[in-house]
Amino acid sequence: xxxxxxxxxxxxxxxxxxxxxxxxxxxxxxxxxxxxxxxxxxxxxxxxxxxxxxxxxxxxxxxxxxxxxxxxxxxxxxxxxxxxxxxxxxxxxxxxxxxxxxxxxxxxxxxxxxxxxxxxxxxxxxxxxxxxxxxxxxxxxxxxxxxxxxxxxxxxxxxxxxxxxxxxxxxxxxxxxxxxxxxxxxxxxxxxxxxxxxxxxxxxxxxxxxxxxxxxxxxxxxxxxxxxxxxxxxxxxxxxxxxxxxxxxxxxxxxxxxxxxxxxxxxxxxxxxxxxxxxxxxxxxxxxxxxxxxxxxxxxxxxxxxxxxxxxxxxxxxxxxxxxxxxxxxxxxxxxxxxxxxxxxxxxxxxxxxxxxxxxxxxxxxxxx
Length: 369
Prior knowledge:
The chain has nine helices and twelve strands. The protein is of the alpha+beta class. The protein folds into four domains: about 1-65; about 85-235, Band 7 domain (Tetrahydropterin Synthase, Chain A); about 240-315; about 320-369, no CATH class. It comes from Dictyostelium firmibasis.
């Protein structure tokens, strides 16, 4: 509006000046006002240009964020065109068609049990990217019943990996939640076929059965189950106390058995030692007896030789007399024995007088022979 006023003044300026009888100073004021209007017009144009450039840059940034997609390593992105599946973006930079292509936003709900926590937490994740790395799904504590109707609490882990992103998004509504519920149901069915003792001693069997039974459904959802692990099995308190008492009794029983076996081994070793000692003693006594017998036999042999030599000499000495050799030897031995009777340790008994003629009678009988 200011420009229109100035143009009007310029058009009618001469008439106004002539009518009022103006001077040249008024004309110079008009010229100054005209230059100021030109500078203001340039400033307005510059501001408008800045606004347009900023708007273009802002819109370009917004559209570039919508159109240009950078997919990181180990991730993929599902792209839909007009609400239908179009393609899967692998790691790298990609340009989408504006207004018709858009990434599929995935809403995943899962239960998480942080390390050291006692309660599980429900986590909700909204993302347009699918992580292709291996994931760990932590089950909450499950109340299951064994074959012998004992209620126990069991915790488990499942390691899964997405292998088919399209199936993971379109084949199941909530992948983590579905895999968790499937594993929990399968675990209850497996535990129901085992007794309490079998449950504690068959962890490897439970892990393998749980993996095999859930593998088919998991593959249909575009997931591969890598491994399943049972973390802990907790029986009720009364059964736990009974089991601890049973374990204590078993330990005491094993200790008593080991002690008895130790004593048995000790007695066997001692018996073997005594037997060896007896054998060695018998061998020693046998050797001593043999040596004594040999010595006695040798002494008897030598004595016999000496007696024979004595008899030979006696016979030679009394050969020319009427004395019998046998009678001589008997009388000689009799007198020797008779001389040994009176000792301090023995008692002497006097026999009738006829007994002293015993040697004479023997000698005569031998001589007569």
